[in-house]
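TICKET: design request
STATUS: open
ATTACHED STRUCTURE:
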């Protein structure tokens, strides 16, 4: 039976009428026994006992009538948008004695839960299909570029073009990973354990390769090391966006990644002058707080609860700092 049709069978104000009957009968009984007690027709102990019993019955009856609302509140309270079955909110699950207002609320929540379930399914289908369709051509481009790199007799102009294609492909690959990561609602890899320093070593090796020919030096300082429980991919994409943003802040200098207890910072240090032209200072941008890289980094930090701080110091240094509230010690199993 369609829920819209069945909703008509629920009586409007049924809950209020039943509660009114309960308290009305309680009032009549209490009034009668009080009158009997005043005229000594009924002992005081019996009067008190009757009042207590009628009050308890009224309370139990009211609690029973409130049970559908309490069950609905409990169901919604434990709903995380992923595990709730919309059919558990179907009107067929309700008693015919349920008040029409409660039935209307259940009907609205059922429609809302159905739309959310449909959205989640479409989101999973899209990310699955987009992941395949976007990664496949990037893989082909990467393989072709690697083959061109090994080609003998490639001109200097061709080599520069290959490096530009390789750099753009890597940037597009990271961008796709970031967007797919943000598009996914949940992921089983969001609770894996990883060592922060190991991920940074991998990212720096990739970044140095793409900075070939540019007067920018990447440095990693490791006064500390720690592990995290979360998404290693998300941390990798976050650090890549911050490193790329730091490299864009200056024409020449160094980008330093520092690992402190529970903190990872990315800072860019610019040399004051370009070699061979002491009269021309290096152009250093202030911290761009509205850039695309920082926008993605901010969304990832918000998603995973890793606060991101941006700071511009007097001179030629911009710092992006990520703080982790629950760093873990590096264990022997993490190093294997």
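STATUS: resolved
RESOLUTION: sequence designed for all positions
ATTACHED SEQUENCE:
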């Amino acid at each position: 039976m369609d829920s819209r049709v069945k909703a008509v069978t629920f009586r409007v104000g049924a809950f209020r009428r039943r509660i009114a009957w309960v308290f009305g009968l309680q009032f009549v009984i209490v009034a009668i026994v009080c009158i009997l007690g005043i005229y000594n027709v009924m002992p005081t102990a019996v009067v008190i006992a009757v009042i207590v019993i009628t009050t308890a019955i009224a309370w139990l009856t009211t609690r029973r009538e409130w049970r559908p609302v309490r069950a609905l509140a409990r169901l919604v309270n434990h709903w995380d948008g992923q595990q709730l079955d919309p059919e558990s909110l179907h009107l067929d699950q309700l008693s015919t004695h349920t008040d029409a207002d409660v039935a209307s609320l259940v009907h609205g929540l059922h429609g809302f839960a159905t739309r959310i379930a449909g959205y989640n399914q479409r989101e999973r289908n899209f990310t699955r299909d987009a992941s395949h369709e976007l990664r496949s051509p990037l893989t082909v481009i990467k393989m072709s570029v690697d083959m061109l790199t090994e080609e003998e007799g490639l001109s200097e102009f061709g080599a520069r073009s290959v490096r530009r294609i390789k750099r753009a492909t890597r940037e597009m690959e990271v961008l796709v990973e970031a967007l797919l990561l943000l598009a996914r609602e949940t992921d089983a890899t969001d609770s894996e354990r990883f060592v922060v320093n190991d991920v940074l070593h991998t990212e720096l090796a990739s970044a140095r390769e793409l900075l070939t020919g540019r007067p920018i030096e990447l440095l990693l300082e490791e006064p500390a090391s720690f592990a995290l429980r979360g998404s290693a991919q998300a941390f990798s994409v976050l650090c890549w966006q911050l490193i790329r943003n730091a490299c864009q802040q200056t024409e020449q200098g160094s980008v330093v990644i520092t690992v402190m207890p529970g903190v990872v910072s990315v800072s860019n240090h610019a040399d004051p002058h370009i070699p061979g032209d002491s009269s021309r200072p290096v152009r250093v941008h202030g911290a761009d707080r509205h850039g695309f890289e920082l926008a993605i980094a901010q969304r990832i930090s918000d998603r995973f609860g890793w606060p991101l701080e941006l700071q511009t110091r007097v001179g030629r240094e911009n710092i992006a700092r990520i703080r982790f509230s629950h760093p873990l010690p590096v264990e022997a199993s993490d190093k294997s």
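CLOSING REMARK: Residues 190-335 form a domain with the Heat Shock Protein 90 fold (CATH 3.30.565.10). The beta strands are 192-195, 216-221, 227-230, 253-260, 263-270, 273-274, 277-281, 308-313, 317-323.
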